[in-house]
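Quick one, tokens below:
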């Protein structure tokens, strides 16, 4: 394949944007430098993540994901919906199976151009997230930013939903500068493989439970939406009894 970018798709899910390459019929080795060059918004095409479709023996396609810093990551909920949309139109199926490094994901049409994704069972054990030290209760681990007696952020819930997430529960997602604290927390030594960092505010109304979410994605920075982040916040909120099992993020 002489030019891997001779044909590409630009897609987004809720503003979380991707460059999608279809390499199911040909091969091209994706390097960190290539992924960074494509994702660069000044000199490249520009995206949060580079998504590459490759053949799979166990699913309709394999989906590989590189963030805009060049690192390959495990899963992406919004990208899964985008790839599912391609497969639905190609095959006429209502349900497709997508193979990711984070596991096999099932995507289903939900009408009105909506797509649902089963992200699989969340993992709460400290070794599965993974954390560098043992915590018996991952609904809130010992981690904080700021003074000991008045931390800016503290006691995040942690979970793996195909990739690792830490959710800090706050009263105002704009009160903390996540562009500054996100990079500090993303690669904190407690997270063996780094983590996506979220600020989450829970609110309730007659319409139901709501979570307002702001996410610093590992290796990508602030993004307009994060599918796995929404799943992580929802499952952790329910686990802490902050919301019911049905919640709008």
């Amino acid at each position: 394949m002489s030019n891997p970018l001779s044909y590409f798709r630009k897609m987004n899910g809720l503003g979380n944007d991707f460059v999608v390459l279809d390499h199911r019929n040909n091969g091209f080795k994706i390097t960190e430098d290539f992924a960074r060059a494509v994702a660069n918004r000044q000199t490249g095409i520009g995206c949060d993540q580079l998504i590459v479709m490759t053949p799979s023996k166990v699913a309709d396609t394999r989906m590989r994901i590189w963030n805009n810093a060049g690192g390959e990551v495990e899963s992406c909920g919004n990208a899964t919906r985008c790839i599912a949309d391609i497969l639905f139109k190609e095959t006429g199926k209502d349900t497709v199976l997508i193979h990711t490094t984070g596991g096999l994901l099932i995507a289903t049409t939900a009408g009105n151009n909506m797509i649902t994704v089963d992200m699989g069972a969340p993992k709460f054990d400290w070794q599965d997230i993974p954390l560098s030290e043992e915590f018996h209760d991952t609904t809130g681990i010992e981690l904080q930013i700021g003074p000991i007696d008045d931390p800016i952020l503290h006691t995040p819930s942690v979970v793996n939903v195909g990739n690792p997430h830490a959710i800090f529960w706050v009263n105002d997602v704009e009160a903390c500068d996540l562009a500054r604290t996100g990079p500090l927390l993303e690669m904190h030594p407690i997270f063996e493989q780094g983590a996506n960092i979220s600020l989450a505010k829970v609110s309730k109304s007659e319409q139901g439970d709501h979570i307002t979410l702001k996410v610093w994605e590992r290796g990508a920075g602030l993004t307009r939406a994060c599918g796995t982040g929404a799943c992580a916040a929802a499952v952790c909120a329910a686990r802490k009894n902050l919301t019911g099992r049905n919640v709008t993020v």
